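Before the break, one more example. Copy the sequence into your notebook; we will annotate it together after we see the structure.
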Amino acid sequence: MPLQRRVPKRGFRRLLRNAARRDEFAIVNLERLANFADGERVDPDILTERGIIRPGRKVKILGDGELSTKLTIRAHAFSAAARDKIARAGGVAELIEGARD
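Here is what the structure looks like once it is written out:
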């Protein structure tokens, strides 16, 4: 009998200890933030109030879309493209303390 038929087959199984270590983020693109007023402060609480994310989730801002207003955005993580676009628009990208980038 060939070796590949003799060796037991094992499937992929996500381990609970690995799943607990991984951070789950609510993803928000810059195009979703374009309808905020100029100079407004955006944080997870405001995003929850407007129905953009679910409550209690960490927020990661991605750079898909353009930002034309000057915003102060507080989130748990930012992509490099999002940071650049926020800075180009004159806004500020602030990390929420205790979060990793």
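The CA atoms of residues 29 and 62 lie 5 Å apart. The beta strands are 25-29, 41-42, 58-62, 72-75, 77-78, 92-95. Try to locate both features in your own notes.
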